[in-house]
Specification:
The complex is a heterodimer of chains A (about 230) and B (about 200).
Chain A (H helix, E strand, L loop, with lengths): L1 H5 L2 H5 L5 H13 L1 H19 L8 H10 L12 H10 L15 H26 L5 E6 L5 E7 L4 E7 L8 E9 L2 E8 L3 E6 L6 E8 L12 E4 L1
Antiparallel strand pairs in A: 1-2, 2-3, 3-6, 4-5, 4-7, 7-8
Chain B lengths: L2 H16 L3 H9 L3 H23 L2 H18 L10 H27 L10 H11 L3 H8 L3 H13 L3 H7 L4 H19 L4
Helix pairs in contact in B: 2-3, 3-4, 3-5, 4-5, 7-10, 8-10, 9-10
């Protein structure tokens, strides 16, 4: 098995694996120190192939990007303990030279997940901006004496609503805030957040109101406490 | 600010402008620095767009993918660690994978529409020619020319066309074990020819 995976090193560096094999190879790569050293050189070589075909982009792209990032939230760094970083250094003495490992090596596995998440986030950000920027948007807000606010933006045209919670007090250890959309059939969970967050809800035309409750971490199937906020849609 | 400090900064400034350290810039992007992002774009926009265009071919679609790549750079820059690699490699690796995923996704959609077209395969001569003509980097071009035909075709189809090695095997009428070996031989030879140190 490991011999077989080893033969995938060059195809991996060239991005010539299908999604399944890519996943299996990355899992193998996490375990295989020899592979990590060799893959670094392969990936650096692939980057040179990529850099050789540069082409001036259309001028409008720059402006569009700068406008888009100004409203796009960023991921936070991954925190690894000092001990983890030290053991990584011991395991990979040659990695510093092979700096071009980039995402390579240990980072690769997480990288794929990160990419998918970034894609989802991007789609969600676009959807959220569309609701907030809709012509028929209606805004309702509730602020709390203890600090923080919950705002609801709804658009009948988009049949969607966005809830943005900011600066709420900590829900307490082992607890989260959970958002519910309530219609005639009862409450449906929309997701959870801690001190703040934003989420988009679709299919709101039949909904009466949106409520926020405090629930155990992971959320509940049905609300188990009285809402801290209820906003009519 | 004391006058001397201001003067010092003025003197030092041109050097900084001439060679912005891309790794440092990307770290700043991770902290939300939009100006640093603009500089990273100015440095890497052509590399990222060119790569997307080479793999995807349709310039409008390539522009879309380049935009997604840079948004992803913005979103995930905080995860970039300069100790593990340089910023350019980080961005180009990300760009290549995204372009390949896009071309395969589009291809799968086309296949669903026209299943009978799939067996016709690529037009080889055309592929070879375009790649050779537009390669700007002389060294890369020379090193690719130094490969055997099968090695070069395998590398070209995989890297510049987004083929999986199984698709390369079908297109070149070879078995997959042979193709994996040729890719390996090809990339080792390219690495040594370009003097990549790793």
């Amino acid at each position: 098995m490991s011999v077989d995976l080893h033969s995938l090193m060059a195809p991996y560096a060239l991005d010539a694996l299908d999604a399944d094999e890519r996943g299996r190879f990355e899992a193998h790569l996490d375990q295989c120190v020899d592979c990590q050293v060799e893959i670094a050189g392969f990936m650096a070589t692939a980057v040179r192939l990529g850099d050789a075909v540069s082409h001036t982009p259309p001028p409008a792209l720059r402006g569009r990007l700068l406008a888009e990032i100004s409203t796009t939230p960023q991921q936070h760094p991954v925190v690894s303990s000092l001990a983890e970083r030290r053991s990584l250094r011991r395991a990979l003495p040659r990695m510093a030279v092979a700096a071009a490992v980039l995402v390579g090596a240990v980072g690769v596995g997480g990288f794929v997940v990160e990419r998918d998440r970034a894609q989802d986030e991007h789609a969600q950000n676009v959807a959220i901006s569309n609701v907030i920027g809709a012509e028929d948007v209606a805004t309702k807000a509730k602020t709390f004496d203890a600090g923080g606010s919950v705002k609801l933006y709804s658009s009948a045209a988009a049949d969607s609503a966005v809830i943005i919670a900011k600066g709420l007090p900590s829900p307490g250890a082992g607890k989260v805030y959970q958002v519910w959309m309530i219609d005639q059939a009862g409450p449906t969970s929309q997701g959870t957040f801690e001190k703040g967050g934003q989420m988009i809800m679709t299919g709101v035309s039949g909904a009466d109101r949106v409520a926020v409750t405090v629930e155990p971490t992971g959320g509940s199937k049905q609300p188990t406490s009285a809402p801290i906020a209820t906003i009519a849609v | 600010m004391p006058a001397s400090a201001a003067q010092l900064k003025l003197v030092a400034a041109p050097e900084h402008d001439a060679a912005p350290d891309l790794n440092e810039l990307l770290v700043r992007v991770g902290r939300g620095d939009e100006q640093a992002f603009a500089q990273v774009y100015d440095e890497l926009g052509a590399s990222v767009f060119g790569l997307a265009r080479r793999v995807i071919r349709d310039p409008a679609r390539a522009e879309e993918i380049a935009q997604e790549v840079f948004i992803q750079v913005w979103q995930s820059a905080a995860r970039y660690d300069p100790a593990r690699g340089n910023a350019k490699s980080w961005c180009l690796t990300l760009a290549h994978r995204r372009a390949v995923d896009a071309v395969r996704h589009d291809q799968a959609a086309t296949n669903r529409e026209n299943r009978y077209d799939w067996s016709s395969g690529p037009d080889y001569d055309e592929v070879e020619e375009t790649v050779t003509i537009t390669l700007e980097h002389e060294q890369v071009k020379r090193c690719l020319e130094g490969l055997t035909d099968l090695q070069r075709e395998a590398v070209n189809l995989a890297y510049y066309q987004g083929y999986t090695y199984a698709e390369v095997a079908t297109a070149l009428d070879a078995n997959t074990a042979t193709i994996k070996t040729r890719m390996r031989d090809g990339i080792v030879r390219l690495r040594d020819c370009m003097g990549v140190s790793a």
